[in-house]
């Protein structure tokens, strides 16, 4: 996969599990059959009203085709109102390209950590194999789903529960995989 979306949604209080149940029941296979790969779905450990997910594509042409087909298709048409009713904000999205590593869960990993740093800031080493990404040079060709304009670098790893991650000048997201998350 050469294009990755890191998506973080702010939800109405108490509605996260409702969105996760709907998402895992209706939105995984319906996107994958169109060319998107749902890499992981997560609860934000520090914020009970945040849902984070990662979606990947072979390239920008596949992304555009998959997004047009999904958001113009019958599954989204049927379930979009229910999904959108859980959300306050769904525009916290980074369009990324891999720099190094891959999404491989570490033995003993029980949670996922994502470190998001402005371009130019150092990313900390993580105590497990990680994937490192950077803001894509490609322009977002699906304006119905906005992405951040500011450049970042991201490191994501599956880590043991007791791992302590500190990153000066960066955001550290502690994530708990949902039942159907591939990446754990």
Short account of what is shown:
The protein is an alpha+beta fold. The chain is 22% helix and 37% strand. It contains four helices and eight strands, in the order βααββααβββββ.
Describe this structure in words.
This protein has helices spanning 16-27, 29-32, 60-71, 74-85, and strands at residues 3-11, 37-44, 50-57, 87-100, 111-118, 130-135, 152-159, 171-177. The chain is α+β, with helices and mostly antiparallel strands. Strands 1-3-2-8-5-7-6-4 form an eight-stranded antiparallel β-barrel. The longest helix has 12 residues, at 16-27.
Distance between the termini: 18 Å
Q: Which whole number gives the mean pLDDT?
A: 95
Radius of gyration: 16 Å
C-alpha geometry = globular
Total beta strand runs: 8
What percent strand?
35-45%
Helical fraction equals 10-25%
Q: In terms of structural class, how would the helical and strand content be classed? A: alpha+beta
Main β-sheet description: 8 strands, antiparallel, barrel
Low-confidence stretches: none
Across the major sheet, the strand order is 1-3-2-8-5-7-6-4
Write down the secondary-structure element order. Answer: EHHEEHHEEEEE
Number of helices: 4
């Amino acid at each position: 996969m050469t294009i990755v979306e890191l998506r973080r949604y702010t939800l109405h209080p108490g509605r996260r599990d409702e969105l996760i149940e709907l998402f895992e029941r209706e939105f995984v296979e319906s996107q994958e059959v169109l060319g998107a790969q749902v890499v992981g779905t997560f609860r934000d450990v520090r914020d009970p009203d945040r849902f984070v997910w990662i979606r990947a594509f072979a390239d920008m042409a596949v992304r555009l085709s998959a997004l047009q087909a999904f958001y113009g298709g019958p599954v989204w048409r049927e379930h979009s109102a229910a999904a959108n009713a859980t959300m306050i904000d769904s525009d916290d999205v980074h369009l990324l390209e891999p720099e190094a590593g891959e999404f491989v869960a570490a033995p003993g990993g029980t949670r996922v950590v994502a470190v998001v740093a402005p371009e130019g800031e150092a990313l900390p080493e993580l105590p497990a194999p990680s994937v490192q990404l950077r803001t894509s040079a490609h322009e977002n060709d699906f304006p119905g789903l906005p992405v951040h304009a500011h450049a970042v670098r991201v490191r994501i790893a599956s880590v043991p529960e007791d791992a302590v991650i500190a990153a000066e000048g960066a955001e550290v997201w502690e994530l708990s995989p949902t039942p159907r998350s591939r990446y754990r």
